[in-house]
Amino acid sequence: MLPTRISSAPHREMVKYEVTVTTANLAQSTTTNNVFIKLVGTDGESKRTWLTSLLGAAAFFRGVEFTFSVSCPTSIGKLVLIEIDKKPLPLLPEDSWFPNKVQVKSPEGDTYHFPIYRWIDDNQVIRFREGTALRLVEDTHHLGKYNRAKELKQREEEYGWKVYAEGIPHCIKVDNPFSLPCEVRFSFTKATQFLLTASSGLTELKLKGLADTNEHWSSIDALEKVFCCKRTDISDYVQKHWKDDDFFGYQMLNGVNPVMIRRCSVLPDNFPVTDEMVFIQGGGTIEEEMQKGNMFLLDYKRFDGVKANIINGKKQYLMAPLVLLHRTPDDKLMPIAIQLKQKPADDNPIFFPTDSEYDWLIAKIFVRSADFNEHQLNVHLLRTHLLAEVFAVSLLRNLPMVHPLYKLLVPHTRYNLQINYLARLLLISPKGVFTQFAASGGEGMFTILKTALSSLTYSSLCIPEDIAERGMDSVPNFYYRDDGLKLWDIIQRFVQGVLGHYYKTDAEVQQDSELQKWIQDIFEHGFLSQQSTGPSRRVP
Q: CA triplet 314, 319, 322: central angle to 5 degrees?
C-alpha cells in the first residue's frame, strides 16, 4: 500500500505596512505606555496592533522617530484614517504623550501622512485622518463621512459655550484649567515658564517691599525703584521724556494703543476750542489746519458716566477726555487742548500748554490713564483675547481636523483658551488684579466692555479699513501703520492663496455647511447677533 500524501493549503504571505511614529521634541512628551494602532483603508482595516520593538518604550521617547511593521492579510486600499490608543503597563501610571506625526508606507509604495501634534493623555481610541485637506463635499468615502460626523459630535460636547457676563463675548464652558481638553492646555514648558514668570515678578515686588504696601508714592522719582532691574534704552528714553508734549503725541501714534487717534475734520460740539485759545505753530486757524489734514482727535467718550472703582476705601477717578493734537511744520504731533470730561461746564475747563506746568502735566496724566484703560479693556482684552476665544471655540466645534480652514487656523489658537480662563480667574474676577487695582475695575469694567462691543465693527478689526476710516493713511512717522500694513499684506496673500486653492467660487463657500456654521457661531457668540456691527451670519 502506497503511503498517503498529505497536502496543505498554499501559504498566503501577509502584506506589510511601514509605520513611522515621530514623538515631539518637547518636555514631558515621552510615553512609557504601550501604544496601539489600527490602519483603516477603503478596502478594509488592519487588526489593532501593538507597536513594539527591541527599543521597547524608548521608541516613544522625546524626539525619537521609529519605524514599525503592521501586517495585514491583504491590501486594505487607500488609507482613510488611523486609530491610536495607549495602555499603561501594570503597576505603572498613565502618562501623556505628544506625537508629532505618523507616516505610513503601503505595500504599493504610496506614503500617507497623518499629522497629530496634540497630547494624548488617556486610553481612549483617537482617530486621525490622512493629512490631505478635504471639504465636506470632497469627503466622499463612507468611512470619512462617518468619522467626520462623529468627530464634530464629540467636539460639540467638549467645547461648549458659557455666558461669563451679559453683553460680552461668550467663552468656553469649563470648571477649571485641568478640565480643558488636553489638546488646548498649556504644554509642560509653557506652564513652567508661566509659573516662573509670575513667581519671579511677585518675588521681586516683595523684595522691594511693594507687594502688600498701601503707602502713597512720595514722588514721581520714587517710581524708579520699581523698574530699576528692568532698564532698557527705550525705558530710559521714556523716563527722560515722558513729560514732553511731542513724546505724548508720538506715543499716540506708536505707543501701546495706536488705534485711538483719528484725523479731525470737524470739532465735536462738546469740545468748544477756539482759535483764541490755542497756539498753532506756523500760524493759521483751526479750520485751515483741519482742511490741510493737520488736526487730530482723541475721544474717550465710552468712559463718560462709568462708575470708577474704589481702591483701599478711596474713590478713584476715570476721566472721559477729548484731546486735540496738531501736526507741526516739522511733522511733530503736539497736544494743544485737553478737556477731561465730555460735557462742557464751569467745572470742566479746557487745558492748554500755556497753563501752569503741573496743571498741563496732570491733564496729560489723566489722558494717559484713560488711554491705559481703553487699551487694556477694549483693544487688548476684548478685541484680542475674548474675540479670539470665540473664533477658536467655534473652529474647534464646527470644523473637523481634515477641513482646510481648520488646518489653516488651528496653530493660531494655541494656548488661547487656557490663558483666557486664567485671565477671567486672576484678572477680571471679583478678586482679580484688574478688579482690585485699576480705576476701571469692578462694575465699570463690564460697562466699558459692553459699550465697546456694541460699537465694534468688523471692519475696525481689519488694519487697512481701520486706517482709512480714521483718516490716518498719510500721516508721517506712523510706524504702526507702515509695519502693520506690510504684515497684513503678507498674511492676506498667504490666506488668499490657501483658500483660493480649495474654493474657486463664492458658491462653493456658501455651500460649505461646516464653514457657514463656524461663522454663524462667531456671529452669535462673539458679536452677540448684532447685525449693525458684527460680520454677516453667512459668508460671503
A: 170
pLDDT, tens digit (0-9, with 9 covering 90-100), for 242-262: 999 999 999 999 999 999 999
Asked whether 333 and 246 are in contact (CB, 8 A), the reply is yes
Query: Does pTM surpass 0.70?
Result: yes
C-alpha cell, 521 = 457661531
The whole-angstrom separation of Cα 449 and Cα 68 is: 54
Report residue 309 as a C-alpha cell. 472703582
CB-hemisphere CA count at 13 Å for 263?
20
- Dist CA 326 CA 60 (whole Å): 64
Contact 16, 9 (CB under 8 A): no
Q: Amino acid letter at 247?
A: F
**What DSSP line would sit under 232-255, residue for residue?**
-HHHHHHHHHTT-HHHHHHHHHHS
CA-CA distance, 62 to 30, in Å (whole number)? 5
Crossing angle (nearest 10°) for helices 513-525 and 387-398? 150
The span from the CA of 441 to the CA of 245, in Å, is: 29
Report DSSP state, residue 141. Answer: S
Could you give the CA distance from residue 332 to residue 347 in angstroms, rounded to a whole number?
31
Tell me how far CA of residue 536 lies from CA of 520, 530, 539, in angstroms. Answer: 8, 9, 7
Phi-psi domain of 283 (left: phi exceeds 0; alpha: psi -120 through 50; beta: other): left
Q: Give the whole-angstrom CA distance, residue 175 versus residue 122.
A: 19
* pLDDT digits 0-9 by tens, 199-249: 887 787 777 777 777 777 777 777 777 777 778 898 889 989 999 999 999
Return left, alpha or beta for 296; rule: phi > 0 is left, psi -120 to 50 is alpha, else beta.
beta
Between 11 and 295, residue with greater pLDDT: 295
Q: Where are the alpha helices (DSSP H) in 263-386?
A: 286-291, 357-374
CA proximity to 333, closest of 482, 486, 472, 470:
472
Rounded to whole angstroms, the Cα distance separating 382 from 451 reads: 11
Residues 397, 398, 401, 406, Cα dihedral to 10°:
-110
Nearest to 18 by CA among 143, 112, 120, 84: 112
Q: Are 295 and 302 in contact (CB under 8 A)?
A: no
3-state DSSP percent of the chain in helix, strand and coil, to 5: 40, 15, 45
Sheet of strand 15-23, all strands in order from the earlier edge strand to the far edge: 65-72, 15-23, 99-105, 111-115
- Per the CB < 8 A criterion, the answer to whether 85 and 36 are in contact is yes
Q: What is the largest CA-CA distance in the chain?
A: 134
Residues 6+ apart with CB under 8 A from 384: none
**If phi over 0 gives left and psi between -120 and 50 gives alpha, with beta otherwise, what is residue 442?**
left
The grid coordinates of residue 315 equal 474713590
For residues 383 and 233, what is the distance between their CA atoms, to the nearest angstrom? 30
